[in-house]
């Protein structure tokens, strides 16, 4: 991996951490807050692509796992990964690969198609994985968990649109060696 690529990964990891400084917005009816940090995950996916994006998100999650307070609200540690929001964290790790697998579908190479692919991978699937784990960890009926996640769709849709618009402007060349 070239120095330039390592720098790109480190910068995006830093950006995800900075977005986590925005305080989470708690919702009374579900133990999952609205956060801005997932915008950083979406940017990692659409700007860096599957390999460097996964590295950037993986590095961020590793820091969180070993105790650096980099998650929204200054959270950290293994307990968060098995708590109510653990499913979203796993979804975040998968986001760059998911989004980019949708983007291999030819229709999704068009700018609007990219937003659809981004939405499927970074919003819909992450919310579904998050809901499934939420239902298990909080002992909530699956349908209730899924329905309560509808609250995230408007904000997360805006975030993926923004991430795709930014990615159109910030063209980060594909890595050849990772
Ligand atoms: C954490 O910091 O422990 C993870 C928070 C996960 C929040 C999820 S990500 C998808 C959905 N959109 C939001 O704004 N919040 C939830």
Automatic annotation (TrEMBL):
Topology of this chain in the membrane: Multi-pass membrane protein
Domain of life: Bacteria
Transmembrane segments: 7-23, 29-48, 55-74, 86-105, 117-136, 142-167
Gene3D superfamilies: 1.10.1760.20
Keywords: Cell membrane, Membrane, Transmembrane, Transmembrane helix, Transport
Subcellular localization: Cell membrane
Family designation: Belongs to the BioY family.
Protein name: Biotin transporter
């Amino acid at each position: 991996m070239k120095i330039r690529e390592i720098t790109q990964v480190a910068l995006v990891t830093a950006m995800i951490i900075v977005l986590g400084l925005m305080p989470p917005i708690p919702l009374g009816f579900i133990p999952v807050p609205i956060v801005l940090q997932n915008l950083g995950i979406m940017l990692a996916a659409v700007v860096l692509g599957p390999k460097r994006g996964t590295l950037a998100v993986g590095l961020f999650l590793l820091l969180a796992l070993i105790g650096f307070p980099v998650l929204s609200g200054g959270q950290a540690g293994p307990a968060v990964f098995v708590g109510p929001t653990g499913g979203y964290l796993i979804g975040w790790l998968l986001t760059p690969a998911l989004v980019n697998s949708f983007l291999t579908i030819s229709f999704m190479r068009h700018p609007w198609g990219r937003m659809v692919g981004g939405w499927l991978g970074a919003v819909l699937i992450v919310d579904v994985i998050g809901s499934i784990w939420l239902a298990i960890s909080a002992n909530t009926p699956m349908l209730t968990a899924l329905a309560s996640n509808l609250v995230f769709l408007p904000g997360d849709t805006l975030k993926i649109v923004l991430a795709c618009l930014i990615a159109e402007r910030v063209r980060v060349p594909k890595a050849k060696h990772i």
